[in-house]
Design brief:
By secondary structure, this protein is of the alpha/beta class. The protein contains 15 helices and five strands. It has a five-stranded parallel beta sheet, sandwiched between helices. It is globular, with a radius of gyration of 30 Å. 36% of the residues are buried.
């Protein structure tokens, strides 16, 4: 009888345990349906990339660089920075211009130490998109002389300018990506503002093509970069897109650049 009693006792205990396991499973299933994040762990409740980007101000813009970044030549003062923000907002983004750090006449050599300034670093860190324009002043010094044809650079002078500035340009790109690795760095490549001047057409086209190739290579080493082509925009439309100084874009020119930017950003 004792042996039989022990068997029935273990059978009762096993039955009770099975009932408890079934009950626990039922409670878990109900909880999972009613509140899936409560049981799915950290991965289920972590925000999506889109949510993270939105919180980080993915479409907030800081512009930095030379007079094109500043918007010189645009009668409205908008330049491509403000126009890019406006176009992004029209397409459903929530974007704002955080800062415009464009300076007339700035060269790569002058921009590089600016990136050490705490205020500049802070402005770049606040942006989800950084618009960079630099290099035009490195290649085309003395706009008035170039426009009049009085000063036409030689191939050797162009080689020297590109060699001198390309190292600085590479450091600029590396430094900006170090300051804000999450931001999309958008570079406005160069155009030849003198394509309609016989003495500067071939020389200017060659200089711009070589500079843009160098810039493409420098930015291509990093994730989160975009090069915006502008050469073709101005090649056949200099009278339409250039301001009266024959160097900077006018409002229509900046609008065309901004449209190119948004096409690349939203791709």
């Amino acid at each position: 009888m004792n042996r039989t009693s022990r068997i029935w006792r273990w059978a009762g205990i096993s039955s009770a345990l099975s009932t408890l396991l079934l009950l626990a499973g039922f409670v878990y299933a109900v909880s999972d349906i009613a509140n899936p994040s409560a049981v799915a762990g950290k991965q289920a409740v972590s925000p999506s990339r889109t949510e993270q980007a939105a919180k980080a101000g993915a479409f907030d813009v800081t512009a930095i660089g030379d007079s094109l970044a500043k918007g010189t030549g645009d009668d409205t003062g908008s330049g491509f920075a403000r126009r890019t923000v406006d176009l992004l907002n029209k397409e459903g983004a929530t974007s704002k211009l955080v800062n415009n750090l464009g300076i007339n006449g700035l060269t790569t050599e002058e921009l590089l130490p600016m990136l050490e300034d705490p205020g500049v670093k802070y402005a770049l860190q606040q942006a989800g998109i950084i618009l960079l324009s630099i290099g035009g002043n490195d290649l085309f010094n003395g706009t008035e002389e170039l426009t009049s044809g009085e000063q036409v650079p030689t191939e050797a002078e162009i080689d020297a300018a590109i060699d001198k500035s390309s190292a600085d340009f590479g450091q600029i790109v590396a430094h900006i990506k170090k300051i804000n690795v999450q931001a999309l760095l958008v570079y406005v490549s160069l155009y030849n503002p003198f394509s309609d001047l016989e003495g500067m057409r071939e020389i200017g086209n060659d200089a711009v093509a070589r500079w843009n190739a160098m810039a493409m290579n420098a930015l291509g080493q990093y994730e989160g970069t975009l090069v915006v082509p502008t050469y073709d925009l101005f090649m056949q439309n200099s009278s339409r897109y250039l301001s009266s100084d024959h160097f900077h874009p006018n409002g229509d020119g900046y609008q065309a650049i901004a449209e190119r930017m948004v096409q690349g950003i939203k791709r």
